[in-house]
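Researcher: Here's the sequence for the chain we discussed earlier.
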Amino acid sequence: MTPDRPAPTLVGRAVRRWRGDDRRRDATTAVTLFLLGWLLLEVGLVDVYTWNPPLTPEPELWWRVALLGVGCALTLAKRHRPMLALAGGVLVTALDVVWGGSLAVMLVLWDLLYAAAMWSGPTARRWLWGTAIVVAVGGAIVVGEATQDVRMFVYGGLQFGAILLVPMWWADNVRQKSELAELERARADEAARTAELERERAADLARIAELDRHEAVRAERAAMARDLHDVIASHLSTIAIHSGAALSTPPDAARDRGALEQVRTSAVASLTEMRSMIELLRADAPRDPLAAPGRLDRLDDLLGSARSAGTSVTLDDEDGVARADLPAAVGHALHRIVQEALTNARKHAPGAPVTVRLAREPQPRGAVVLEVRNAAPPAGHAEPAGAAGMPLSAGTGMLTMRERAEALGGAFEAGETDDGGWHVRARVPAAAEKGSTT
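Model: Thanks. This is the structure I predict for it:
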């Protein structure tokens, strides 16, 4: 997070600069109060309160100026120690009142009261307001009792209120507006952060959608690869086997004609399957027969094609699975697995008999179990090869059969038998069978 590191430094600099401005502003205010107060003392605005007899002799002007300087010096600490500065200001004001009072010191008291109400904590402000109200009301009562005049009582109350309460009320008003402004700024920042998070969330959703589209494309490509291997490769392997057998043996018209008929049948079937796949890719609304051209109910055609190619195939289906109303995905997967297993048997064990067994597990909605087993190839039958001795297998048959079974939540296994043959076993759940109840 290197780009975020300079932010605290900039904020710290701004805070320090702002605090420096506060100190300069407080010093400017103190000097201004001192000069203004000195001017008021010079023009004679003293003896605000008349004591009869006088409490003390009339002090020299410089005493009043010195007292004013002390009060202005206290204002330098009003921001960081507001209550302590106010306490010192009260002492200065009390001495000034004993001397008869002056407007200059009263201005200093107002500034300290404003600062205390502005920058003190909540508890200190409550105490300050309570004390000020008590002093204002008590002072008004004392003046009224001393003069026995209701007008003086009201006048004294107004004076005490103007001196003590007005600056505090002003400070509370300013502080509340500042807090509201700060709250609005915080809300604006929060709204900006929320908008940014929403933009990031939208971008993440767009990326996720794009990844889902890519994943769907990859899955579709894998499915097409399986179909191409199971369908087209099977027929092309048949063509290669028969043509290779015809080329590797002495000419025989009847046998060659049979081989050519089988080659033609496989070629036509390959073209039909390829046309179905092309139409599926070009169609806006693909139909199920195109999406799954091979179904288990067409197993007889598949076995007949293998028999016509010279493979002895036996079907064991006591439970009638091939005629059962299975889900399309299950029937399609089992059809393709049988097709690939028969193709492998013809390629790797030519002439060996093959047994295809279908069964249902005993549960009410049991899985379908498919087994394809071939014996060891007869002596003298070598595995055929293509042109220039290249093998006829792409090496992905086992993988596609396993993927088809596991894609439906099933299991797949294959391996060599004890007698040297090969077996394939797939178990595919059929829980979604049509007409079943839950």
